[in-house]
Amino acid sequence: MLPPVKKDRVISHLPHCFSTNAALHTKDGFHPQVKAACQVQRTDSVSFNLAKVIVVGDVAVGKTCLISRFRKGAFDKNYKATIGVDFEMERFEVLGVPFSLQLWDTAGQERFKCIASTYYRGAQAIIVVFDLSSVSSLAHARQWLEDAMKENDPSSVLLFLVGTKKDLSVGASIPKTRLLINKWIAKKKTATMKYKFEDLLMCLQSIVPCYIASSLSLSPQSPEQLSQIEQEAIRLSEEIKAEYWAVSAKSGDGVMNFFFRVASLTFEANVLSELEKSGARNVGDIIRLTDSTEADRTPTKRKSNCC
Which top-level group of life is the source organism from (predicted)? Predict the structure, then answer.
């Protein structure tokens, strides 16, 4: 018997999109038929209790960090390139129903494409990841999507275009740095409190690289540069009919909401697909939602290192 789903993985309402200009839909709630199916919890099919999600994009755009941040709630500073494919399973409860996401983290290196592409087939969602500080990674997003779609039916796959490293903006770094400086000054002015010089070093380490990189046109970017690449990303999202998100694995900004959105939309799509296949017309005819699925019996992680 599986333990209950963690409280922070319970979804009771449809999460909002990141941008109404590039969203799969902007409805405030789940489809009425989906809510009815979850309330009744009857009949024989459990195939929609699982969704396969593949994550693609250039090397070092932050695919693994994005998944790790969501699963572990922390940022992993020790970067390790994915070799082949990594596989993770994340359990949810959506509208009171057990649901699992298979997260397939694929390698971005060219030499591993032959391995990764073999795992593209059968996806319910494709997440194309790019680096908000790298225009080239956004330009390559279209090709990554085309490669993934060769193995899938365009009519049955949800697409997401995700910009990572949102924190790498001078504008985003300054407020945090100001807080650190003010904290250091306050300590210094308080005679009864011993301040640490390390606090000032932390401030300098935070702010100096931002200004140097900005002056050299490297990442981090200015808010204006970030806005420009986001506008281009939204245009691409509209063109390929994908939902756009901007997140930061380092700060955690937007990560939880994004994966909750992916889980909710794939769950909704799977339920509606099952309803259509079964030809159900009455609430009691629809789908049985059980606690035991093939997804839950799948190993939590696996790697592939060969073609």
Answer: Eukaryota
